[in-house]
Write a structure and sequence with these properties.
Length: 295
């Protein structure tokens, strides 16, 4: 074992791995927020509760339906995404032309209701969720031990994030989505059902949050508070990257996770605030965010 800047290498690389894990969840959640804000112009404060619902859905599928983690990766985002689509059709569609504050207040209230319901039935203590047998164990890299499951989370998150970016930025479907936010009347002229597209987009963004929840379940306990503990940091990530910026959400999510992990090594007292300090500095220099479009 060797040292880097006086820090044992295994401690440094372990914190880097933890930072990448956190960054994976930051990226997935902020990506969902960016998709929803960029396409629907809604600040979705329910995102943390929907992340929690994804973890609970994985738990329910295992406990009551006997479905494994791999099935939960597919079923949970679909079910929670459908729940999000119901919210969009019954509540959010009436707020698109109003100030952002109305959507923020509505989704914040919904988040409190959802979290309160789960806390009432399941309490505040976490519920365990076992990782799949195929991803148990790890690899000894010499300078650190790399758990298989954590490596899977980082790689899977990166693939999903880049795949989402490609679909939105480089395909015809993505072009229709972007055009629908700018000129819905023109898009309707091509025979496209814009309200349905918006509903599906919101459901997809919610599904990303649920997917992150399923992947987080084996690492953290499944708890009603798991979303509220994370959502404030994720909003800071979105602001730093630029509201509505897909690539900004991905880059800042992973990048800030790594910075947070390194801060725990060199300056542990600042690890809980470093992201917010960076947010303040970025907003002073570039109010639209690092990847946001300036007016």
């Amino acid at each position: 074992m060797f040292e880097i800047f006086g820090i044992p290498s295994n401690a440094l690389f372990s914190q880097l791995l933890i930072g990448l894990i956190n960054g994976s969840f930051y990226a997935l959640l902020s990506l969902g927020l960016a998709v929803i804000f960029g396409m629907l112009n809604i600040i979705n404060f329910t995102h943390g509760a929907q992340y929690m619902m994804g973890a609970f859905m994985a738990f329910f599928l295992l406990q009551y339906a006997g479905l494994s983690y791999w099935w939960a990766l597919i079923v949970a985002p679909v079910v929670v995404g459908l729940f999000g689509m119901i919210i969009e059709r019954t509540m959010l569609q009436w707020l698109y032309k109003l100030d952002h504050l109305y959507g923020l207040l509505l989704t914040f209230g919904l988040a409190l209701i959802i979290e309160g319901v789960f806390r009432n039935y399941f309490g505040s203590s976490g519920l365990p969720y076992a990782m799949p047998d195929s991803l148990r164990g790890g690899q000894n890299l010499g300078f650190m031990f790399l758990p298989n499951y954590r490596a899977w989370v980082v790689v899977a998150s990166l693939v999903v994030c880049l795949g989402t970016w490609f679909v939105i930025e480089r395909t015809r479907l993505g072009a229709y989505l972007r055009a629908a936010t700018e000129n819905p009347t023109l898009v309707r002229a091509f025979g496209i059902n814009v309200p349905r597209m918006i509903t599906l987009t919101y459901g997809f963004g919610v599904g990303l949050a649920a997917l992150a929840g399923v992947m987080a379940a084996p690492i953290y306990n499944v708890s009603p508070q798991m979303g509220s503990d994370l959502i404030i940091v994720v909003f800071a990530v979105v602001v730093i990257g630029g509201m509505g910026s897909i690539m900004g959400a991905i880059v800042t999510g992973f990048g800030l996770g790594v910075i947070e992990g390194l801060t725990k090594v060199f300056f542990p007292e600042a690890s809980n605030t470093v992201i917010f300090v960076i947010m303040a500095i970025v907003l002073l220099i570039r109010p639209a965010g690092l990847f946001g479009r300036t007016a």
